[in-house]
Q: What sequence folds into this?
């Protein structure tokens, strides 16, 4: 007999029929003798709908009130699921984030879990109840309801599993983690296992299956995370600590993102404080910079390029207008039709030649890249979006993904 935390996302509890189906799965697990905690998201697109209602009333609703509003979505799904379980003859109790002891810190609508007072959950488990916990929400030091940022139910689930020292099973509408997003490369393989580190790189690079922060918590507390389909029994993917069997390949996966734009500032007078000022202004406006490169100074001038989210385009444009005023002769180019393509693999640590192979692939196939960055386990390239599909297919084939 073991404790398990399961999590079902919005699509998996999107209708009454689907909620009944989740209840059946939980009951089956209980019948096997396991103690079950289940975290659920709001039904279907409920959270979006709630936010839209608030936006009809105000352009900038108070974040505290937004949290109050959004948290109701999960309250609906936990109570319905608990009702379904009770009806099937399984003792169950639903708990809001507050009732489950989830204490948060930080800003409304993007709070972070600080700690979980787990006694109440444990008590109900010991009474044989299936404990249904609202995802995505907690309570702050003022006793106000908070939410953890969009997609935050994954974080609730992994944090509960960390506290209960058990496995976390994430049931969703995809059947696991793939080497490449199957919508972009249909013959991509499903991975049996992937390390936390690789998953973190892939998640932050655009592989949308798991919320990034939940993987960080999993890594920190060494919680095995299992991602699988909610609609069928079908083997999924384990996200877990690295082990030697994972190192046989240099590349584990390929991530692709169209979410960034690339800014190039040409002819910046070469002084460290100028470069610093540019990035200070961006940081002040909370613009998240990803790749940065700078040319060597020539005639006292340098060119600087960086990538940042397309969603911040207007802020970036404003800052660039300011910079053009400051540096006479500078030119700014903002490119939007770019794609970031990254290869990720822990195997890169011990196998050399991945970068060389990538450069050769690009050269042989006449694919130009505008920017390259590397970390210990990933190499990212910025290419034109028009080359995206071709690049994915060639790289995936060359690395057997
Ligand atoms: N219901 C929340 C959202 O839509 C939390 C979640 O689904 O994980 O973002
Ligand atoms: Mg989600």
A:
């Amino acid at each position: 007999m073991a404790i398990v935390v399961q999590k079902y996302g919005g699509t998996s509890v999107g209708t009454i029929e689907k909620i009944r189906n989740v209840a059946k799965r939980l009951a089956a697990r209980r019948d096997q003798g396991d103690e079950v905690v289940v975290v659920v998201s709001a039904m279907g697109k409920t959270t979006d709908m709630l936010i839209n209602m608030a936006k009809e009333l105000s352009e900038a609703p108070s974040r505290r009130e937004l949290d109050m509003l959004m948290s109701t979505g999960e309250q609906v799904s936990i109570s319905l699921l608990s009702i379904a379980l009770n009806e099937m003859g399984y003792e169950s109790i639903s708990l809001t984030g507050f009732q489950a002891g989830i204490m948060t810190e930080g800003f409304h609508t993007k709070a972070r879990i600080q700690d979980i007072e787990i006694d109440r959950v444990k008590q109900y488990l010991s009474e044989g109840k299936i404990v249904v916990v609202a995802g995505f929400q907690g309570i702050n030091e003022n006793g106000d309801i908070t939410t953890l940022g969009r997609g935050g139910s994954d974080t609730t689930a992994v944090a509960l599993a960390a506290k209960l020292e058990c496995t976390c099973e994430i049931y969703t509408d995809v059947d696991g983690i793939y080497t490449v997003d199957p919508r972009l490369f249909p013959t991509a393989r499903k991975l049996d296992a992937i390390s936390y580190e690789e998953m973190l790189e892939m998640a932050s690079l655009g592989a949308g299956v798991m919320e990034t922060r939940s993987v960080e918590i999993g890594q920190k507390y060494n919680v095995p995370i299992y991602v699988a389909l909610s609609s069928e029994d079908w083997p999924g993917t384990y996200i877990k600590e690295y082990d030697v069997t994972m190192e046989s390949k240099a590349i584990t996966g390929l991530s692709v993102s169209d979410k960034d734009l690339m800014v190039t500032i040409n002819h910046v007078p070469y002084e460290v404080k100028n470069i610093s000022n540019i990035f200070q202004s961006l940081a002040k406006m909370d613009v998240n910079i990803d790749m940065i490169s700078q040319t060597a100074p020539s005639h006292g001038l340098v060119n600087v390029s960086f990538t940042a989210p397309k969603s911040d385009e207007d802020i970036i444009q404003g800052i660039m207008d300011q910079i053009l005023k400051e540096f006479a002769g500078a030119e700014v180019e903002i490119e939007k039709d770019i794609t970031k393509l990254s290869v990720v693999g822990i195997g890169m640590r011990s196998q050399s030649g991945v970068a060389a192979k990538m450069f050769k692939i690009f050269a042989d196939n006449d694919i130009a890249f505008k920017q390259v960055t590397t970390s210990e386990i990933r190499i990212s390239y910025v290419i034109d979006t028009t080359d995206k599909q071709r690049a994915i297919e060639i790289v995936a084939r060359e690395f057997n993904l």
Observations:
- The radius of gyration is 24 Å.
- The domain at 3-173 is CATH 3.40.1160.10 (Carbamate kinase).
